[in-house]
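Morning run. Coffee first, then this:
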Amino acid sequence: MPASPFVTVIPGDDPPQIQGSPHLDRLRAYGEVVLYTDRPKTVEERVLRARDAICLLNSRGAVHWPREVLRQLPRLRMISVCGIGTDAVDLETAHELGIVVCNLPGRTAPIVAEHALALMLATARRTWFQTNELKCGRWTSQYNLSLRGKTLGLVGAGSIAAETARLGRAIGMRVRAWTYHPSAQRAQSLGVEFVPFDELLGTSDVISLHLKLTEQSRGLIGRSELARMKPEALLINTARGALVDSTALADALNAGRLGGAGIDVFEQEPVPPGHPLLSCAHVVLTPHNADQTTEGMEILNSGAVDNIIAFLEGRPQNRVE
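And here it is:
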């Protein structure tokens, strides 16, 4: 147990994720837990909520911790995120200030990969389009896409990509991949062939994104990349919205230069009215909930609390370097 009391702050649990979780009782055994059920609307509100925190449990990646906020939190020693992505935290500043950042690498990979497959199948079989046509009183006949025998191109080679590769092979797809850092060992562990990025774009029937968001990967899929894809190809994104130029994607879909898209993540969340993808016919959209199953929430909530307790007991785990 820590030698002195401490405060853990959950700065904006909206939509609800960890509120009501029994894992918070484990955390309360170590000190005060302050939970906010709405998101902070301003920088000042974020600072006010977190100013007494020694630990932050960032249950929602939409609550961001940039340099100008972190520098105003002299008590803060640790941030635990509920997932693998850490793009909501300015890692350079956190490291500079001695703030430990911990994530949950690979814990929900099978659950997210299952969602990627669901988006793939729903997009290929045009389930939203056909449901909407029937609701509007139209019996519209349009060919769907069979995935068996088609090529799945994975952008990224982490744990979610590995699970997506396994599911793709299970339904008879050929799987290829691209990553910033290919190696024979990674190819063997993933069970796929690595190919150049342009080749992956031009030869895949489905492109599925599994990269973390960095300055290098931001905007990776833009107009020129979409133009290299097959006109009937599908784009699936369960990674981060800012990997894709949404306006360019909507233009390609509306012009018939792409077969469809299954999107779980967006540059701005919640999605604002008038977002270009909302007007597209051949899309399947979900509200960044790929890991939000009963099992997924249990894994994330327990893991985030485990990381804080491990830090407080002097044995930090899952540190992001």
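The two ends are 26 Å apart (CA to CA). Good start to the day.
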